[in-house]
Amino acid sequence: MNKISNFQFPIFKKAESKNGGFTIIETLVAISIFTVSILGIIVATSFGISDSTYVKNRLTATYLAQEGLELVHNVRDSQSLYADSNGWDHFLSSLSSCLPTGTSSGCDIDPRADLFGGPISFSGTPVPVASCPISGCSLVYNQNNGFYERSANSQATFKRYVTIGGSNPLWINYNPEGEVSVVSTVTFTYGDKVGTVSMSENLLNWIDPVGSSN
User: Is the dihedral of CA 140, 137, 150, 75 positive or negative?
Assistant: First the structure.
């Protein structure tokens, strides 16, 4: 009878996984990195929104400043073409409130106003020409008619004021050749900041310049 020798079966140990779960510290680090990344995206997005608001408001302010000059053109042309022989004087007297003072930055002209025939009347609705406070006349967009209109809202995004003849107290006789300077300024807000757009030009008495024959 064969003798059976003692034989021990090998004990196989379970191999330890090298890809074990995250430790608490590793998890916290991963969360921190993810949080910082998200915050970076949020900050970048907020700056992008702020920049787009600035560009949009500045573009609108540029158009409103240009409109201010065009409105003065309209007053001059209307008074010169449809008033009597004193059209240039009517033009200046109609815009006398555009002279800046200690309490007024200038004036604003309503684009819907009737400007024909003699000096502009300061009655009626809308008031054709209004004196503006130092901060400018507030403008608010009216979706019904497509105009930016004067408003009592002191917190309006856009404010405009137009000056004629600078600060010269004798501005009606600003230039013996019949020339006045016009400056249209619009301020606008974006966030907690304020931007400014200003345009200027000189207007001539092109209908009846001094020295021309009648």
Answer: negative
- Buried/exposed 2-38: b ≥16 CB within 10 Å, e otherwise: eeeeeeeeeeeeeeeeeeeeeeeeeeeeeeeeeeeee
Long-range residue pairs from 152-159, CB within 8 A, at least 24 positions apart, any chain? 157/57, 157/188, 157/189, 158/57, 158/60, 158/61, 158/64, 158/186, 158/187, 158/188, 159/132, 159/135, 159/186, 159/187, 159/188
CA 139, CA 149: separation in Å to the nearest integer?
5
Q: Match 């209004």 to its residue by tokens.
A: 130
Residue 117 to residue 140: CA distance in whole angstroms:
29
pTM: 0.68
Reported as a single tens digit per residue, the pLDDT across 127-174 is 788 899 999 999 999 998 888 999 999 899 999 999 987 444 445 444
